[in-house]
Amino acid sequence: MIFALTPAWAADVGPHPLVRLAVSEWPPFTGEHLPGNGIGTDTLRQMLGRAGYQLELVWLPWTRAVRDGSGMDSKLDGYFPEYTTADTRRRCQLSAPIGMSVLGLAHQAAQPVNWTHMADLGRYRVGVVNGYVNTDAFDAAVSAGILRVDGASSDESNLRKLLRERIDVAVIDREVMGYLLAEPALRNQAGQLAFHPHWLGELPLRVCFRHGARLQPILAAMQAHRLPAAQLRAGQRDYLRQLAEQR
């Protein structure tokens, strides 16, 4: 059933109230020049559309997207995509999932990485992206000094550091890694890297809405139109297959 919610606070853009969100480049989930602006964006747009809302995107670097999207004085309603962690639960109101992220470790294919428990990664130089949250267990291990992390400005930068052996592993989403390694800049070196079969986790991707009662109708609408994880995975597979055919 399709229904429309029109809270008084929402910006009026004709028949559909506006949801204004900050977003950063994180292909294939988000991308200003990707079909539908990325699979995560396209899924979100469809969920909001079925509830009678219109999505407006504000493209920002990640740290600004988080800061401006979650700030109390912001003109934005929130930002995406985001994981569920203790930190993000404090920072915002998290929506129903808009995608599924397999988070794990990239490494040199010729140099196997042996790990079962988080402490096992303490022997490796671990690349992370500055400003990203990962899993609660991983972030807690970093805070406790169990893991040695080396920050970078982007996932692509971490893959380049991995190729130059400046780090041993890089925390990255599986589909993001696949997308970046298919780009011309890294395509010829793609065979040198592998995604570890032992994941950090499969994490739902969500919208981080600012705290406040006025955004509750949007959260409720997204919950009412939420998609099962299996359907999100299937949609991502279809999107990635079509994207590969176009590249």
Q: Can you give a write-up of this model?
A:
By secondary structure, the protein is of the alpha/beta class. The protein has 2 domains: 11-100 and 202-246, Periplasmic binding protein-like II (D-Maltodextrin-Binding Protein, domain 2); 103-201, Periplasmic binding protein-like II (D-Maltodextrin-Binding Protein, domain 2). Helix content is 32%, strand content 25%. It has helices at 39-50, 62-70, 86-91, 136-143, 155-163, 174-181, 216-224, 229-246, and strands at 11-13, 16-23, 54-59, 78-82, 93-94, 99-108, 125-129, 148-152, 169-173, 193-195, 201-209. Strands 1, 2, 3, 4, 5, 6, 7, 8, 9, 10 and 11 form an 11-stranded mixed sheet that branches. It is globular, with a radius of gyration of 19 Å. Residues 1-14 have low confidence and may be disordered.
List keywords for this structure.
single chain, 247 residues, alpha/beta, D-Maltodextrin-Binding Protein, domain 2, 2 domains, 11-stranded mixed beta sheet, 8 helices, 32% helix, globular, disordered N terminus, Amino acid ABC transporter substrate-binding protein (PAAT family)
